[in-house]
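Researcher: Let's run the pair from yesterday's discussion. Sequence first, then tokens, for each.
Model: Starting with the first of the pair.
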Amino acid sequence: MPRDTAQEPLLTQHHESDSQQQRSSAFSITVDDLAPLTDPTNPKLPRDLGGIEQICKALRVDPKLGLHSDEVLGSSSPIEGASLGKADQPKFVARSEAFGRNVLPTVESASFFSLVKQAYDDRTLILLSIAAFVSLGVSIYEDYGPHHDPDEPRVGWVEGVAILAAVAAVVFTNAINDYQKERQFRKLNAKKDDRCVKLLRDGREQEINVKEVQVGDVLLMEPGDLLAVDGIILKSHNITCDESSATGESDALKKDTQERCYVISGSKVLDGSGSMLVTAVGTNSFFGKTMMAMREATPDETPLQVKLDHLAEAIAKLGMAAAVAMLFTLIVKYFVQIALSGQDMPDGGQIFSDMVKIVIQAITIVVVAVPEGLPMAVTLALAYATTQMLKDNNLVRVLSACETMGNATTVCSDKTGTLTQNRMTVVEGTLSLLSFTNMDGGKTWIKEAKESVSQIIIESIALNSSAFEDKDEKGNLAFVGSKTESALLGFIKSVGASYSTLRADIKVVKVYPFSSAKKTMSCVVKSPQGKEPYRIYVKGASEIVLRSCTHYVDSEGETKVLDEQARAKFDQIISQYADKALRTIALSYRDVSSSEFKTYNDEDSPNVKLVCLGVVGIQDPLRPGVVESVRDFAKAGVTVRMITGDNLQTARAIAKNAGILLQGGLAMTGPEFRALSKAQQTEAVKRLQVLARSSPTDKTIVVRRLQELGEIVAVTGDGTNDGPALKMADVGFSMGITGTEVAKEASAIVLMDDNFSSILKSLMWGRAVNDSVRKFLQFQLTVNITAVVLSFISAVASDDNQSVLSAVQLLWVNLIMDTLAALALATEPPSPDVLKRLPTSKEAPLINFNMWKMILGQALFQIAINLALLKYGAQLFHLPLNRHGKLDSENLLVLRTMIFNVFVFLQIFNELNCRRIDDTLNVFRNILNNRVFIIVQFVVLAGQIAIVQWGGQAFKTVPLSGKQWILTILIGSLSLPVGLFLRLLPAKVVPEVILPQVPEERQPLVSAARMRWEGAANQVIMQGKFFEAIHKKKNPRGGSAPSLPQQRTALTGELAKDTLWKKAYGAAKTQLDNNRENNNNIGSSNSDV
């Protein structure tokens, strides 16, 4: 009788697949067994697989120690029938074979052949190829047919072959560019996906690359983590996850070890901490399966690409109209000439051959007119810029952010780690009312403090922390985690304490992780030496923790009531540290009874009736170059605003040192800003330069108000809760070192070095990208207009219906102005000059006044010079005329070759003009910094020499003499003085009707000069109102005004009386506020005075 397996745990059931049995022979569980655990549509609970303990045994992992680096020698107790293989086997091979690696299969690169096919997938090029094949067929028939004159050379086929060769050159050049571009973006994506996670291995916390995570690993979870694996919660301290990107569920989901124990990859840890058992990685995880299904998606075009696509489409339509007009005109002219000549109608073969030549000319006009290089210029500029920006520690995740950053008007920056070095050190402190400085590193304090008190302080730092010590890349021990916590751990290490020993001896029973809203972190521990069985430790922002304290510990170790006098002393200590630009952290504790502990929930930390242990001052010096970068931002018309969680005094001190807070600028706290009405916030944000004690919500509000004023806002953020502000910003910058994975995912650019100066570099590259595209646009439109008009007029005016520029010559010009020009002009590195102008406004046209002036002026000049050479070139170049006063076919070919040479050199020299899109006269400035530009010019020059000297019948050219080369180059170089003249041409000379002038630059909301002037004026008003209030207080009934010495004495007496000072100050401030309100301006907050 067969046994019933319905009630047996799934782990004991046999599996039919032999291959799967072989792969998982080291484990009694398979990928298919684990998959239902994290299936959002139909999840199974761990008890369905025998429970957490049974799953850990099956995966051969001790949840308290994690995996062993050597599974053979140090594996967990094996379950029956499992083996891990040979001792010399590389680590985790059996595990990787059974459950896969945490990587997705590499996307196959598009083959070069497919890129060639894609480049050739253009209707115009296909049409031109068909016409070339027809021309080739007709030419071969004429050369080798019965009517061919034996004395004539058989070279008719050369033009058709040359056109096909030129088409092939265009196609292969585009394909090579696409191939290079794809390689660059692949490197960027590989860099983007490279990150580290924290886990438990060999019984200790470690950081490893996310790609090395294995099924069975014990992964540590912290706020801000972006989970790359599926798993089961092993330990949860109020863990909350956002699974909206995976499931569409917008609400934050609580996680525990019971019913809500599963977590899926792609979700974000919003709050809490804990650990999880990894059950699925790579393509077996939820995120991996989703990504594999989305790989066919194509990237969106950037806004600039969309603009240029529309412009290219409009130009192509005009080019098509010109081609159709040319085709119609030449066909009509062809038959009219035959009719007027009185000769017999040519045979059908001749007419067909002539018609094919006319069609080829018309199609070539379309090829030249269609600016297919415009979108390619954007792509090349972005590809080059993003690659170079990575060298400047800017990892671009969203391509459009690069061009958007170029027009940024405001940067809202964090302080810690961005403006400062994020190398935090405890340099001063007052613990149990005993002060110390960085001179002795706290050694004097540890000697003077009561042992019982110092032990509590050391325990509070060691236990109420998630930072730990690990080896860095060089093998040196370094703290990993929050820099503030690392500084505190470094302090207790300097006084001889071991945080790891304390963590091993004392059990932490509940953790309330740091919250940017609460500005505190708390933990509850078992306290065998305390008065009660539990003790809560709280640390955080000094004034916030102090607000929750009712007692303090003095130098004798006595616990005393925190009365007004003692509280004022602590406020004074905090103020002194803050004035030195130190971050102040307060430490506190309280003993908790068993009955009270039972009332604690996982939501809110019970930070009440605390005992203040003291305050420490943590120094985080400004990064080198920050002051200069802030100054450069100001020159570029970009306002820097500092939004920080530090207290107001610390924030003001650092902002002044950095040059952010100017006289007249507004500095206030987040709660003060939130208390304002929307209209007041909009008015205040114009002058806001420092927002202290701010929450992520405050940052989001500031961004929204600035955007409502038309600002283009860049925001920096590193925390999970910064996600909304980073998403809302026009450009979001996350921190590559200290930033959470959630922040990185929400950002457009990752600062790999967390350095503020890197933001300035991204601004420069953004402006360089926009400038590069405009330079190319200026160059290409000039060539377009000139080539189309010249071809049309010369073909219509000629006797043989042939343009002065042959089809193959035009294809070479097309190659110059599309691919090669895009390479030359789109790879221009940014110069410091880009910071000397204000941001471009959103309303500014793509082609500005200066560009139109250069485009139309150069086009008119080039058309005129070429038509003049066509008309008077024989006389100018001393070419002999026949008896009819015309050039014979041989000399006509010489003239057309010289005109072709002049045309190309006009473009070569005009490309130098197009390096500048402003009125700067020196077009050679910084030219040596762009090696690509120089190389391209040499390539074009070499190609032109080869075509003219050896192109022959294929390119319809003849070799020129040295004198003719010099003449044509000199005429071509006239583009430079013409460009100089056009730059010197005043704007008022050009009528508004012809070229309307639209303001391009966006002015700051409030200029620095105006801010300083108003700040100085307000200060004078404030001082006057203050003295007036003092005077009224001294003379309430309108007595005579006291003398100056009397005023000084009165002022000193008033300042000595705190209450009277506050009244006078309040009266002065009220009058000032009323005065500002009457002027419809926002009233200054307390922090602005």
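Model: Moving on to the second of the pair.
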Amino acid sequence: MNSGRLLVFSQVLLILVAFVTTSRREKKTFKIAVFYDENHDNSEDLVSYAIDTINRQIKSSSFQFEFSITKAEKSQSFKLTNKLCEELDEGRIALLGIGESSIFKYLQSISSSLKVPYIAIKWENLDEENKILEKLLDDSDEESKTESNLINMHPPAHKIVKSMIDLIDFYKWDYITILFQESAGLGRIQDLIKLNVRKYFKNRNGQAYNVNSKFRVQVRQLSKDISEWIYLIKDVKLSGSSHIIVDLNKKYLNLFLEKAEEVGLMTSYFHFMFTTLDLAFLDYSPSANITALQIFEPNDTQVRSIFAEFNLKNMVSQKPMFKYMPSEAVMIFDALSLLAKTIESQNLVNIIPEFPKASCESETPWLYGTEFMKHMKNMKFNGLSGNIEFDVYTGYRKNLTLCIVDKTRTGVDLVGYWKDINSSKSIEIVRSYSKEKDQVLDKLSRNLIVTTKLEAPYVMRKETPNNETFIGNDQYKGYCVDLLVKISTICGFNYTIKLVEDGVHGALVDGKWNGIVNELIEKKADLAVAGLTITYQREQVIDFTKPFLNLGISILYKRPQKGTPNLFSFLSPLSIEIWLYMLAAYLIVSFMLFVLARFSPYEWQNPHPCKQDSGVVVNQFTVLNSLWFTIGSLMQQGTDINPRAPSVRLISCVWAFFTLILISSYTANLAAFLTVQRMQNPIENADDLSKQTEIKYGSVRSGSTENFFKESKIQTYERMWNFMSSNPDVFVKSTEEGIERVKKGGYAYLLESTTNDYLRQRDCDLMQVGGLIDTKGYGIGLPTGSPWRDQISNAILQLQEKGDLQELYIKWWEKEGKDPNQKCENIDDKKKDSASELSLANVGGVFVVLSIGLCLSFIVAILEFLWKARKVSNDQRPFSKQCSNGLKKTMESFFRAEFQNPFTKNQKIDSDFNKLRFDEDECENFVKKNEDPKKFKTKNSKFDNYLSNPYMYDSDSGPRSLKEKMIEDFKFAMCHHKTRKRSKNIKNLNLNNEIRLIEPKEYINYFEKNSRSSSLPPIDQYKRFLISQKTRNSMNRITRKKIFKKCDSYTDHNCIESTSDDHYEKESIQN
């Protein structure tokens, strides 16, 4: 029984051994030739482990890989060629080249001629990629385009460079430094520069990549002597560049970072970007920002599993272990996976061996090589390095994704991804803000150095009455100090305030920055919290947060003292030219009044209304009266002179209108001048300041205000800068010095408006002249690339939204350090409140109206003259003769107040009439001597008849005796009408030396003799006057002319009565 069982077991065992032996014989082996350069000495272990792993992962188990590995040395190209030919004679289906050595181009050329697939793992420079593309694009044969036997597992150079440029744009770097050492590194750096200057990369369709990036670059080569690196790194620090791209062999990376730390570059203000894909190999715990690209995720589980197994195998075999998975190991795994998946997917296990091998001796290519390469290029799968996909023409990878990683104290952290898309969204950040903040705090020391300068009210030393001393941050107070407290609370950091040594904000002097700006450039301070103006020039070397104060440049000047009021300040409302024009207008109008009044006949009046035919007329507008009338109207008072002629009235109205407007304007402006206390300020704005040289002006040396005028292209500010630069003594070292010079007088200080406001509210002797010259802001300065910038900017925005910034401003500008009882007049902050003097442009129209009125009145006076001459000429003289005579008399009247009317009809006037006059004394004596009416007796009957005439009676007093009548008539006529002003002698009337009355007989006889004369002598006119004077009340409107023409004498009572009755009857009928 037992023997039977043993026999059965032996038969089964033989069958299994036979089956296994048969199976092993059926499993195909594909050989691969591997070549590596001197920079990849560990490639043998990696390839060996990769092939073992891939062989285990092949699902069909119908084939396996074997490899031979050879180190490719540049000096042994002939030996390498023989080695390659030997490998091909053994039937290698593919070649794997690891490294960037130039010898690989030779191997690639041989494999290409023999149609053996060549898989490369190297950085291909842009020039080489473009050459391949150009060759393919120039070849019109579509078949030849597919014969490329190259596949590169390394991401293409143009993809890596583009991802770096996108990353630079994402970080907003505008000035970078590139450091390299080897020639291969120079090629990679050139690719970066070429794309940056828009040397486009052509794709397989002949199109170009449009890389929209532009930044300043400085390129420096690291010496082969490592000891000299430190000097180059110092130069980089002094250049002000805080963004550095480093291309080094990964075995030198740690050494480089050590040198950088010695110089002081390993701080949070510097950001390094390495071209290596193996950032994890950095055995360093940096405080600086270090970024790189990686072809696999740091926490990929599959990569970690393979890496752990690889290290375990090395540990068992007592070989060196890796701390991190190298990138070429991942690409080797993916290259072997590509071969395996291609053979499996295309069922090439039995097809490949059927084709004859390639041979160098016979120069026979591998007939299946082209088809095999085509299958590999069409493969698509997810490998350890992400998506595996190739361009069928070039063999370069496409549609790949690169990982963006940062080096931290614990290793490598994933920041985001770069995707192979031509879009602004090619970068995807996956790190959260809270995690980023934690990393920032981890990199930074929580105690920040804050640089500042003493300047009220921003930073000041505390003063205590007990002479108490403070230390540290407690010794400072001010707006910036309070602001720093609030920001540190929000952002969560501690700080130490440090005063800048030279006490200036910072300016570029002789090519080097000083002051606070220099502290930030040299990274001696983490923050600068002061009255630091944000300018373009400063932003080129340091970073700024959002502004916490908005302001501008203003002018500080000594407030002028109130001047003594001018005695003739009432003249101020009108300019000097207006006063002169008014004086000229006054004289011209007065002269025109005088001329027109003389020229117009209607302005000449009979001084004796009761004696219309006397021929004597008087003009009231003498020279003095004309001047008086005009000045009376101007002074709004009026005169007792009333113009009669239309022309004179017209010019009077125009003058009244002129004076109305002018006086009203003067009164309104005078009120403004008298109610406003004007200060005599020699300058009102920057333009006034630039146009004079008596008052000097300047600013703080090496400040933003000085730089503003220096760089300004506005004419006014250029003129001001020319003055300041030619007078260096106008610049001051501090604001305190500037204030002292302002108070001494003759100096204007240019400073920020916020400081100006603070000083003016505490010193009433200071004032601001004009408005703001420019607009700008104060910001917190930080070293370039500081990770605190965004967080502090967000804190400032929070404080602004809550109103905390405004509260701080009110506290330090309006409350702290200010005497509550002190109130300064803010007239300098207002617009110019004094009235402006009126010029000719304001009141010129009234002068035009006045001129038109003068011309119009003169024309009317001429028409009056002509009309009157025409009217008179109808009865006596021709029109032309009357005009010439009237004009002659008018000219003579300019020098006389009374003369014979040139337009009267009775122009023959006896001179005796002028002689029949009494003076006033004679008139009074005559009245006194003849008060007794009994002395007069009637001797003539005709005179009695004359007395009996009813028209000789006054309607009120009734009939009177002849003597009474004669005495009253003579007194009235001679004393009151003819002797008031002129003649003193009585002649040519046969009068005795003693004064006596004219006898009634003489009176009547003389009248009767001359009653029919057409031109009565003066005495007859006088007699007629007496009669008409006494009869006008009874006769009403009957003129003496009508009566005397009909009646022979005054004794013809019936004639006179009938004539009067006829007149009354006619008048009644008319009424």
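Researcher: Give me one sentence on the second I can quote.
Model: The radius of gyration is 62 Å.
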